[in-house]
Amino acid sequence: MQTEKFAIENPQGYLLAGTVSRPDKDKGKPVLLLHGFTGYKEEIHLESLSDTLVNAGYMPVRFDASGFGESEGPISQFTVSNYLSDVETVYRWITSEREKTDPTMHVVGTSLGGLVALYFARSHADVDKVCVISSPTKLGRSGYIKDQQNAWKKQGYLIKSSSRFGRLHIPYTFYTDAQKYDALDILPDINSQLLVIAGDQDTTVPAEETMKIFAHAQEPKHSILIEGMRHDYKHQPDILKQVNESVVRFLLG
């Protein structure tokens, strides 16, 4: 396995920091991994999934959205709209890297990254398969963000603790921008094969919210409800392994 970092400039002029891992024998089919709200590319579950994917012969690509992680830009740059734009920037880079004989790719998104993955897949016929893990249909429809919305609006920012970056002040403009994106509006337009994974102990994005994605999606589609799985399943080693293996089986199938 070969792992290397890359930096590419987005349309706003900010450098996006990313990591690509390649199988030893060839480039492998690209799999774009998208982090969640205030997530970052080195999170345990993304690194673990990346390792599992490259061992299965894939070329996983991870990056930090602009305004967050190691990517450039102020925290106000971190919005769903800008995240989607950043995905397009990384997609163009992936297009130049992937095998010409296999011009398709897969996308896996965790939490908010799953919603972003669905919007991206709708616009790209070369996305063969999409997997969303513990993802909302819309930010604030239920769970943690819904509970925080009023205080977030009143204060003008949301204080969110990050294991790596400490206390973050997320502007309310993130919330208002995110209201433009509702998976239920676009699922009929997505032709990629879909896997939806949810945890029955997830209180941040309840399983019934994530499973609405499965219910409204087109065939072919698959769903897995994992017993005991929380939103922070990265701290549940057995469940983390189960999620990774489920994703790989879906992509290989």
Automatic annotation (TrEMBL):
<dbReference type="InterPro" id="IPR029058">
    <property type="entry name" value="AB_hydrolase_fold"/>
</dbReference>
<feature type="domain" description="Serine aminopeptidase S33">
    <location>
        <begin position="31"/>
        <end position="144"/>
    </location>
</feature>
<dbReference type="Pfam" id="PF12146">
    <property type="entry name" value="Hydrolase_4"/>
</dbReference>
<dbReference type="InterPro" id="IPR022742">
    <property type="entry name" value="Hydrolase_4"/>
</dbReference>
<keyword id="KW-0378">Hydrolase</keyword>
<dbReference type="GO" id="GO:0047372">
    <property type="term" value="F:monoacylglycerol lipase activity"/>
</dbReference>
<protein>
    <submittedName>
        <fullName>Thermostable monoacylglycerol lipase</fullName>
        <ecNumber>3.1.1.23</ecNumber>
    </submittedName>
</protein>
